[in-house]
Write a structure and sequence with these properties.
It is built from 26 helices and 32 strands. The chain is α+β, with helices and mostly antiparallel strands. The chain has a four-stranded antiparallel sheet with strand order 1-2-3-4, with no helix packed on it. Helix 1 packs antiparallel against helix 2 and helix 13 packs across helix 14. It is elongated, with a radius of gyration of 62 Å. It is a peripheral membrane protein. Its main location: cytoplasm. It is found in: Cytoplasm, Cytosol; Early endosome membrane; Endosome membrane; Late endosome membrane.
Length: 804
Amino acid sequence: MTVHEKFLALGTHYGKVYLLDVQGNITQQFDVSPVKINQISLDESGEHMGVCSEDGKVQVFGLYTGEEFHETFDCPIKIVAVHPQFVRSHNKQFVTGGNKLLLYEKTWMNRWKPSILHEGEGNIRNVKWRGNLIAWANNMGVKILDVITKQRITNVPRDDISLRPDMYPCSLCWKDNLTLIIGWGNSVKICFVKERHASEMRDLPSRYVEIVSQFNTEFHISGVAPLCDQLVVLSYVKEVLEKTETEYCARPRLDIIQPFPESCEEISSDALTVRGFQENECRDYRLEYSEGESLFYIISPRDVVVAKERDQDDHIEWLLEKKKYEEALMAAEISQKTMKKHKIQDIGLAYIEHLMKIGEYDLAARKCQKILGKNTDLWEFEVHRFKEIGQLKAISRYLPRHDSILKPFIYEMVLHEFLESDYEGFATLIREWPGNLYNNTIIVQAVVDRLKKDPQNRTLLKTLAELYTYDQRYGKALEIYLTLRHKDVFQLIHKHNLFSSIRDKIVLLMEFDSEKAVDMLLDNEDKISINRVVEELTNRPELQHVYLHKLFKRDHHKGQKFHEKQISLYAEYDRPNLLPFLRDSTHCPLEKALEICQQRNFVEETVYLLSRMGNSRSALKMIMEELNDVDKAIEFAKEQDDAELWEDLILYSIDKPPFITGLLNNIGTHVDPILLIHRIKEGMEIPNLRDSLVKILQDYNLQIMLREGCKKILVADSLSLLKKMHRTQKRGVLVDEESICEACLSTILPTNASEAIRVTVFHCRHMFHKECIPEPNTISTVKFCNICSAKHRGPGSAILEMKK
């Protein structure tokens, strides 16, 4: 059989030749010989055919013309090959092969002239003609001939001479005009025809052959063909039975091989099922191929198998058959523009169905996002399928939320599923899903009904509050948040301006978080007044104190009407802040404060109030009698800076040695220590008296040294300033034509140079005509600058007279 891109030519053992289309339908029939057809050859145009048979007949004829050549030889002719360009008049050539290789050429008289190309090496087993090169195989090897020069350019010897050439024939195939592929036995060679350099020509052919790849295969070769940079090899396989150790014929293999210079790599291998393969031999198989369509034909005695290069659709089909849906989906996405049979969505749906069958529900739901996309009908169909198998929870996380929103009942169905069995999951969906996906009223009613069975469930209560918020029923949401003491209650109030709703819930807010509640109330005084807050907290004085205390910290005057009340609140709940409050407040009644402090025996606060009310002596007495703290008494006396207080302190301390020690150590800079020392009784033991006296002397010496130092500094500064003033006053003052009299505002110098100049210039740089200065009074004859005398510039007003 031989192959053309338009049809197939098939010869039989009964001497008939059939022309078949690519689907295998017979289109023409030729009765060539009564015996076996050995070889059929077609030119590139597909218009001329050469046929040879076992009885020695050779025919070359036109399929569509009357042109025909007949020749009968005295031996079987195994091979015939017509020129690839036989349709052209100057290429009317063909070769035949029996025991020798003959070339027939048509002469100018339309006669056929034979010439022997090769003989003497056994029968010709195969011939392939490409361009101007003829390759043939005989019992010794493969030869290549240049038809133009009639020179044989190479001889490739047979590797395994132990194999019978008639049982294991040579396979030849031209990949292109210069590359020949040889498969013989278990050896493959790729030969490349090259032009010889002119310097190397001598008596050698103009071309030579280089073997660029050579390797052995595992099985015997029945045919070879090119596939891009790879090879398609048809192999005859024999295997051994383990039990009997006898060989038997296995199914032939079609392998794709990647050739390398000295080795190869098997890319794929397929075993072919043909009828009668058990009885077939290596010579019973042939491989032909059609270059134009990349179709490969495997010929056996009973079958013709067509193989074609697998495209992406075939690959995806195979992946789907092997249930490799993930890989099929990826392959479809990569080659979606070239696919013809499959669609990405169909593959994806099959993948989802497969995942659901094997129980991978979460993965199936996750794939829905990518596969279903924005197709709402498919989404709804798949949701119902998940519901049927009880797996709505799996798909809930992946339902569309923004684009291509589904019908509300789909989301409601999922929410009801969670509400029945998973409160936390239900709450999560309510938080994550926008409120416009479902009918909020229906879901609220469902939650309310569920709360009747479980009224204390915090998760459901919180979720109900969120649903009320979506529904803008903020009052109900606020009540639930306050009941739950939820942290979002303040955010809810601020966000939706619910201050009017919390007027009667201030106590609840304060109990929940007093600090946040007070900050919120103080920040929104215009919405809830201070009076309203204080009134609401009347029965909770401890909360009332927290609110008023923070109000006072913000502004000492805003809550002044409550300062009297705050005295009792501080005394009851926050005594540490009572004294700072009394000090900072200018509106609290001192008498009321004093009464409360005296009732509670708050000494420090009482002392402060007494001193503030002008009763410093009582305050000092309380410090000494109640606190018995001389340091505080001394500090108090220092603050008041009152001699009578110091006298009272000395009188109270004179019979108390520890107090005397304290006074000796601290009053040296306020009261003369001699006054205290003179009053000390003789014989009284005073602790640390020596140290106190030494300290007094040291303090005194220190004061003396400070005074001396200050005196020296004062004298030095005075002398320096005096010298500076003297230098300044000795300097001259520039008087020129631009100088003016400060009194009459005319130029100070006369325009006539012969006139006498009578000018008075003060050290302050003000100038006057002599006659413009007022006469001095009788008390003092010193003249002063009228301008500067009011500013008391002292020496700057002295005069400098200028006379000509």
